[in-house]
């Protein structure tokens, strides 16, 4: 009869890339892992790996079964986690994902308090671009989000977190600042705009000059450095460029048809219909207390 150990051996070989790594990760010997796979193949009546290849490459049938095995093992892990949660009364881990544009300190202060109260629960912290945290909510990695509230997300309940100002900036040495008070769009299209790109939920970009030249980056620090070096222009959170604006390294840029300063609302959110454990609930309450204090 097929066993979970056989499926774990299959997953370990595929994801580890070799029998040796699989054995190390599962704390077993290589012959034990090898026998488990051979027995699984014998029971299924097909080969999972193409042994004509130097590396452990899956056959087409093996690829299909590997994907199904991941789902089965994921369900088993979910079952085990639920059992432990019901026994201890606390989640093993709670994930929180936030948009990388916002200041981190207010988030960490709240998480620190939750960790003091629930030291046995591991708190996973993810920083993503734009609405990228929604993807982590979808795949179960995060249960609480802090995202720009660009529309009404009907499946989420939310609390206010903060409003953040974004500034369109360019190097203070740019000749555009001397030539124009408001730069025409036709002119700006010839100057690269630095744009943040990220996960599937944050593929849609905002404030991007259509038809213009672009640099695409995946973090705000790189975006800021490109603009400081005079290699482009773009919108950045005010708190990230306060010193550069005061020192005259960067300067606000007014583009035709757009505002130099824009304000975005960020909210903390979770699935409205999803039951939560005591740790996730306490974390939500702590953010709610913060919202009541700062509001």
What does this entry look like structurally?
It is a single chain. By secondary structure, this protein is of the alpha/beta class. 42% of the residues lie in helices and 22% in strands. It has 11 helices and 11 strands. It has helices spanning 4-16, 19-26, 30-44, 60-88, 105-117, 133-138, 176-179, 185-188, 220-228, 242-246, 278-294, and strands at residues 49-50, 57-58, 93-99, 122-128, 144-148, 156-171, 193-196, 214-217, 234-237, 250-252, 261-271. Strands 3, 4, 5, 6, 9, 10 and 11 form a 7-stranded mixed beta sheet that branches. Strands 1-2 form a two-stranded antiparallel sheet. Helix 1 packs across helix 4 (60-88) and helix 5 crosses helix 11 (278-294). The longest helix has 29 residues, at 60-88. The chain is globular, with a radius of gyration of 25 Å.
Brief write-up:
The protein is of the alpha/beta class and 295 residues long. Strands 3, 4, 5, 6, 9, 10 and 11 form a seven-stranded mixed sheet that branches. Strands 1-2 form a two-stranded antiparallel ribbon. Strands 7-8 form a two-stranded parallel ribbon.
């Amino acid at each position: 009869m097929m066993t979970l150990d056989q499926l774990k051996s299959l997953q370990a070989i595929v994801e580890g890339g070799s029998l040796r790594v699989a054995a190390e990760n599962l704390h077993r010997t290589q012959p034990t892992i090898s026998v488990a796979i051979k027995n699984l193949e014998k029971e299924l009546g097909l080969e999972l790996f193409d042994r004509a290849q130097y590396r452990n490459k899956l056959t087409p049938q093996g690829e299909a079964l590997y994907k199904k095995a991941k789902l089965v093992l994921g369900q088993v892990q979910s079952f085990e986690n639920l059992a432990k949660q019901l026994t201890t009364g606390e989640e093993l881990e709670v994930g929180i994902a936030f948009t990388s544009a916002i200041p981190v300190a207010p988030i960490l202060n709240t998480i620190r308090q939750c960790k003091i109260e629930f030291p046995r629960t591991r708190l996973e912290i993810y920083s993503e671009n734009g609405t990228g945290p929604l993807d982590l909510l979808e795949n179960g990695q995060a249960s609480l989000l802090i995202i720009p509230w660009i529309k009404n997300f009907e499946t989420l309940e939310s609390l206010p977190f903060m409003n953040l100002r974004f500034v369109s900036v360019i190097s203070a040495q740019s000749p555009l600042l001397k030539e124009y008070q408001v730069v025409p769009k036709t002119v700006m299209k010839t100057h690269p705009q630095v744009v943040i790109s990220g996960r599937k939920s944050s593929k849609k970009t905002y404030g991007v000059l259509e038809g213009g030249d672009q640099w695409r980056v995946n973090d705000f620090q790189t975006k800021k450095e490109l603009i400081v070096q005079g290699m482009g222009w773009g919108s950045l959170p005010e708190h990230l460029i306060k010193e550069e604006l005061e020192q005259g390294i960067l300067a606000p840029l007014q583009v035709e048809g757009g505002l130099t300063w824009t304000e975005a609302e960020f909210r903390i959110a979770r699935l409205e219909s999803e039951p939560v454990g005591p740790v996730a609930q306490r974390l939500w309450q702590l953010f709610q207390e913060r919202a009541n204090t700062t509001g």
